[in-house]
TrEMBL record:
This is Magnesium transporter MgtE intracellular domain-containing protein. Coiled coil: none annotated. Residues 126-179 form the Magnesium transporter MgtE intracellular domain. It comes from Pacificimonas flava. Residues 98-121 are annotated as: Disordered. Residues 107-118 have a biased composition (Acidic residues).
Amino acid sequence: MKQVIDRLSGLRRYVPSKRITFLPLMAAAAATTALTHALAVGAAETKPAEIEAEASSVAENRMSAAIRGDLEKRDVDAAQQARALKLRERSLAAAEKRISDAAATEEQAEEPAAEEDPQAAQYDSLARIYQTMKPKKAAAVFEQLDLTVQVEVSRRMRERSVALVIANMGPKQAAALTMALAQPAGVPAASGTAKGKG
Protein backbone atom coordinates (compact mmCIF):
# COMPACT_ATOMS: atom_id res chain seq x y z
CA MET A 1 0.00 0.00 0.00
CA LYS A 2 2.85 2.32 0.80
CA GLN A 3 4.39 1.64 -2.56
CA VAL A 4 1.19 2.63 -4.30
CA ILE A 5 1.05 5.86 -2.37
CA ASP A 6 4.69 6.55 -3.12
CA ARG A 7 4.08 5.99 -6.82
CA LEU A 8 1.07 8.26 -6.77
CA SER A 9 3.12 10.85 -4.99
CA GLY A 10 5.74 10.43 -7.65
CA LEU A 11 3.09 11.23 -10.26
CA ARG A 12 2.84 14.61 -8.80
CA ARG A 13 5.98 15.55 -10.60
CA TYR A 14 4.33 14.81 -13.88
CA VAL A 15 1.15 16.75 -13.20
CA PRO A 16 1.57 20.23 -14.60
CA SER A 17 -0.66 21.89 -12.04
CA LYS A 18 -0.04 21.80 -8.37
CA ARG A 19 -3.36 20.13 -7.82
CA ILE A 20 -3.45 16.37 -7.41
CA THR A 21 -6.49 14.44 -8.40
CA PHE A 22 -7.56 11.76 -6.00
CA LEU A 23 -9.00 9.50 -8.62
CA PRO A 24 -5.87 7.35 -9.03
CA LEU A 25 -5.41 7.22 -5.30
CA MET A 26 -8.98 6.03 -4.80
CA ALA A 27 -8.55 3.43 -7.53
CA ALA A 28 -5.45 2.03 -5.86
CA ALA A 29 -7.18 1.84 -2.47
CA ALA A 30 -10.18 0.06 -4.03
CA ALA A 31 -7.92 -2.44 -5.76
CA THR A 32 -6.09 -3.21 -2.50
CA THR A 33 -9.35 -3.70 -0.66
CA ALA A 34 -10.70 -5.99 -3.38
CA LEU A 35 -7.54 -8.06 -3.31
CA THR A 36 -7.64 -8.42 0.48
CA HIS A 37 -11.33 -9.40 0.35
CA ALA A 38 -10.69 -11.98 -2.32
CA LEU A 39 -7.92 -13.56 -0.27
CA ALA A 40 -10.12 -13.69 2.82
CA VAL A 41 -13.06 -15.23 0.92
CA GLY A 42 -10.81 -17.76 -0.74
CA ALA A 43 -9.31 -18.80 2.59
CA ALA A 44 -12.75 -19.09 4.16
CA GLU A 45 -14.08 -21.23 1.32
CA THR A 46 -11.20 -23.63 1.40
CA LYS A 47 -11.10 -24.37 5.16
CA PRO A 48 -14.50 -23.88 6.85
CA ALA A 49 -14.18 -27.10 8.89
CA GLU A 50 -10.83 -26.01 10.26
CA ILE A 51 -12.18 -22.60 11.23
CA GLU A 52 -15.16 -24.16 12.99
CA ALA A 53 -12.89 -26.64 14.78
CA GLU A 54 -10.57 -23.84 15.83
CA ALA A 55 -13.48 -21.73 17.08
CA SER A 56 -14.90 -24.62 19.06
CA SER A 57 -11.49 -25.45 20.55
CA VAL A 58 -11.07 -21.80 21.58
CA ALA A 59 -14.48 -21.91 23.23
CA GLU A 60 -13.61 -25.20 24.94
CA ASN A 61 -10.27 -23.76 26.11
CA ARG A 62 -12.03 -20.75 27.57
CA MET A 63 -14.63 -22.90 29.26
CA SER A 64 -12.08 -25.35 30.62
CA ALA A 65 -9.94 -22.46 31.85
CA ALA A 66 -12.97 -21.00 33.64
CA ILE A 67 -13.80 -24.38 35.17
CA ARG A 68 -10.19 -24.90 36.21
CA GLY A 69 -10.15 -21.45 37.78
CA ASP A 70 -13.34 -22.20 39.72
CA LEU A 71 -11.97 -25.54 40.90
CA GLU A 72 -8.69 -23.94 42.01
CA LYS A 73 -10.61 -21.26 43.90
CA ARG A 74 -12.71 -23.93 45.62
CA ASP A 75 -9.56 -25.85 46.52
CA VAL A 76 -7.98 -22.74 48.02
CA ASP A 77 -11.18 -21.96 49.97
CA ALA A 78 -11.38 -25.55 51.22
CA ALA A 79 -7.73 -25.44 52.33
CA GLN A 80 -8.33 -22.18 54.20
CA GLN A 81 -11.39 -23.63 55.91
CA ALA A 82 -9.42 -26.74 56.86
CA ARG A 83 -6.64 -24.60 58.37
CA ALA A 84 -9.20 -22.53 60.29
CA LEU A 85 -10.88 -25.70 61.55
CA LYS A 86 -7.55 -27.16 62.71
CA LEU A 87 -6.73 -23.89 64.48
CA ARG A 88 -10.09 -23.94 66.24
CA GLU A 89 -9.59 -27.57 67.24
CA ARG A 90 -6.15 -26.75 68.66
CA SER A 91 -7.45 -23.77 70.62
CA LEU A 92 -10.37 -25.86 71.91
CA ALA A 93 -7.98 -28.63 73.00
CA ALA A 94 -5.77 -26.06 74.74
CA ALA A 95 -8.78 -24.54 76.51
CA GLU A 96 -9.95 -28.00 77.62
CA LYS A 97 -6.45 -28.75 78.93
CA ARG A 98 -6.34 -25.47 80.86
CA ILE A 99 -9.76 -26.19 82.35
CA SER A 100 -8.83 -29.75 83.32
CA ASP A 101 -5.53 -28.55 84.82
CA ALA A 102 -7.35 -25.86 86.80
CA ALA A 103 -9.90 -28.42 88.02
CA ALA A 104 -7.12 -30.81 89.04
CA THR A 105 -5.29 -28.03 90.87
CA GLU A 106 -8.48 -27.02 92.63
CA GLU A 107 -9.16 -30.63 93.66
CA GLN A 108 -5.62 -30.94 95.00
CA ALA A 109 -6.06 -27.73 96.95
CA GLU A 110 -9.34 -28.98 98.43
CA GLU A 111 -7.95 -32.38 99.44
CA PRO A 112 -5.50 -31.08 102.09
CA ALA A 113 -8.21 -28.80 103.46
CA ALA A 114 -10.46 -31.82 103.93
CA GLU A 115 -7.65 -33.79 105.56
CA GLU A 116 -6.78 -31.03 108.05
CA ASP A 117 -7.53 -31.77 111.63
CA PRO A 118 -10.18 -29.71 113.39
CA GLN A 119 -7.55 -28.08 115.60
CA ALA A 120 -5.94 -26.52 112.49
CA ALA A 121 -9.30 -25.09 111.51
CA GLN A 122 -9.59 -23.64 115.04
CA TYR A 123 -6.15 -22.04 114.70
CA ASP A 124 -7.20 -20.52 111.37
CA SER A 125 -10.32 -19.12 112.97
CA LEU A 126 -8.34 -17.68 115.88
CA ALA A 127 -5.85 -16.11 113.46
CA ARG A 128 -8.69 -14.33 111.64
CA ILE A 129 -10.11 -13.12 114.96
CA TYR A 130 -6.79 -11.73 116.22
CA GLN A 131 -6.11 -10.05 112.88
CA THR A 132 -9.36 -8.11 113.15
CA MET A 133 -8.71 -6.99 116.75
CA LYS A 134 -6.78 -3.89 117.66
CA PRO A 135 -3.13 -4.83 118.20
CA LYS A 136 -2.99 -3.61 121.83
CA LYS A 137 -6.04 -5.64 122.91
CA ALA A 138 -4.90 -8.67 120.88
CA ALA A 139 -1.48 -8.50 122.57
CA ALA A 140 -3.06 -8.43 126.05
CA VAL A 141 -5.04 -11.60 125.29
CA PHE A 142 -2.16 -13.19 123.36
CA GLU A 143 0.13 -12.96 126.41
CA GLN A 144 -2.28 -15.14 128.38
CA LEU A 145 -2.21 -17.99 125.80
CA ASP A 146 0.01 -21.04 125.82
CA LEU A 147 3.19 -20.57 123.74
CA THR A 148 2.25 -23.38 121.29
CA VAL A 149 -1.12 -21.74 120.66
CA GLN A 150 0.59 -18.36 120.18
CA VAL A 151 2.96 -19.89 117.63
CA GLU A 152 0.26 -21.77 115.68
CA VAL A 153 -2.02 -18.73 115.54
CA SER A 154 0.87 -16.38 114.63
CA ARG A 155 1.94 -18.60 111.74
CA ARG A 156 -1.56 -18.34 110.26
CA MET A 157 -1.76 -14.56 110.63
CA ARG A 158 -0.44 -11.96 108.20
CA GLU A 159 3.07 -10.77 109.01
CA ARG A 160 1.94 -7.18 109.49
CA SER A 161 -0.68 -8.20 112.05
CA VAL A 162 1.80 -10.40 113.95
CA ALA A 163 4.32 -7.55 114.03
CA LEU A 164 1.76 -5.16 115.51
CA VAL A 165 0.72 -7.68 118.18
CA ILE A 166 4.33 -8.46 119.13
CA ALA A 167 5.08 -4.72 119.34
CA ASN A 168 2.32 -4.34 121.93
CA MET A 169 3.42 -7.34 124.04
CA GLY A 170 5.79 -7.22 127.00
CA PRO A 171 9.49 -7.66 126.12
CA LYS A 172 9.87 -11.16 127.61
CA GLN A 173 6.68 -12.47 126.04
CA ALA A 174 7.60 -10.89 122.68
CA ALA A 175 11.07 -12.47 122.86
CA ALA A 176 9.65 -15.90 123.71
CA LEU A 177 7.15 -15.77 120.84
CA THR A 178 9.82 -14.53 118.45
CA MET A 179 12.17 -17.37 119.42
CA ALA A 180 9.37 -19.89 118.97
CA LEU A 181 8.49 -18.46 115.55
CA ALA A 182 12.15 -18.67 114.51
CA GLN A 183 12.04 -22.44 114.93
CA PRO A 184 11.05 -24.53 111.85
CA ALA A 185 7.35 -25.32 111.57
CA GLY A 186 7.76 -29.01 112.49
CA VAL A 187 9.67 -28.37 115.75
CA PRO A 188 7.32 -28.02 118.70
CA ALA A 189 7.56 -24.86 120.77
CA ALA A 190 8.37 -25.07 124.42
CA SER A 191 5.13 -25.70 126.23
CA GLY A 192 3.83 -23.42 128.91
CA THR A 193 2.72 -19.87 128.78
CA ALA A 194 4.76 -16.95 127.65
CA LYS A 195 3.91 -15.04 130.80
CA GLY A 196 6.74 -13.02 132.02
CA LYS A 197 7.39 -10.58 134.75
CA GLY A 198 7.68 -7.50 132.64
